[in-house]
Amino acid sequence: MDAQLPPHEGGELSVVDMHTGGEPLRIIVSGYPRVEGGTLLAKRRYARERLDHLRRALMLEPRGHYDMYGALLVPSELPDADVGVLFVHNEGYSTMCGHAVVALGRFAIDYGLVKEPRSPETPVNIHCPCGLVRAFVEYADGKTGAVRFLSVPAFVFATDVTVAVEGFGDVTVDISYGGAFYAFVDARRFGLDVRESRTRDLADAATAVTRAVVSRVKLRHPLSDDLAFLYGTILTDGKERFSSDATANVCVFAEAQVDRSPTGSGVTARVALQYHKGLIGLNQSRTFQSGATGSQFTGKAVEETTCGDFKAVVVEVAGRAFYTGVSCFVQETEDRLKHGFLLNGKGVVLHEARTRVT
Predict the structure, then answer these.
(1) What fold characterizes domain 13-150?
(2) What would the pLDDT profile of 79-105 be if each residue is shown by its tens digit?
(3) Predicted confidence (pLDDT) per residue in 147-177, tens digit
(4) Residue from 97, 128, 130, 251 carrying the catalytic annotation
(5) Does residue 97 carry a catalytic annotation?
(6) Rounded distance between C-alpha atoms, residue 61 and residue 57, angstroms
């Protein structure tokens, strides 16, 4: 028989779930109130300040989990955009997400956001908070396949920055931007291997680096202060010079959230860093592997450009996404956990009141 929800007081939130390389994406298709703002960045601020209880409800337990990731579809002010999107996670709102772009490329065609798809590729313009990202979706016989996208200008902010990291002493990092800022460091600096070490050890080391960089380095983005924050730290296997062999990394972002994929914006930033250092050339495609799941993206620098006063490159990243389900969620008035919670080392943290449940 058809399953139906019993009567409830609140509205329904409808989502489509996908994953790219193992990293989840919960696409929110209905149930949100109107997100106000004349620009996408203004909408991002409005959602953060006025609607954050809905992010928590869908990303955190009991409907989500610590490492859930989401995409909220919103109107774009750009005439060339097929869809506008706000990215959400366990801590807040990102400015770019490559694994989400790969999934949204398929979704936009399959759910009719792009009219008259064509073979062998259909372009899908996705307006992210960092700017317009141009995706290209394989399309044949009515079916969508792999997706590649061209990044916003990616650039290196600083190299060889030394920060004092709690528990590890002085650590030298590079900082690069691929739609979001990341710190990069070889995992071997901490005695770790991105393919073999425990995920918790990798996450702890990366989180310590992120905290140190945030407290000691003031970031700047030439287009908007809303983009000038460190999203996370990417630990690498140290294989930065061009090779036909895959190079692995693990990205830890937001509130110690571990990416299951190679990280699309992280691959973008890493390619920009490698190009900046003269370790790869234009159109030299590399394979980037997730140390967590073994899933792979390809990435290459395809064009030199600028971003304000920074020398930059446009990076092409490619991968595959798959559907996992369709859900409808509710929030009952008497449910004290309706706004979501996370487990930490001290117990259950309610994110509405920031209190512990014992």
Answers:
(1) Diaminopimelate Epimerase; Chain A, domain 1 (3.10.310)
(2) 999 999 999 999 999 999 999 999 999
(3) 999 999 999 999 999 999 999 999 999 999 9
(4) 97
(5) yes
(6) 7
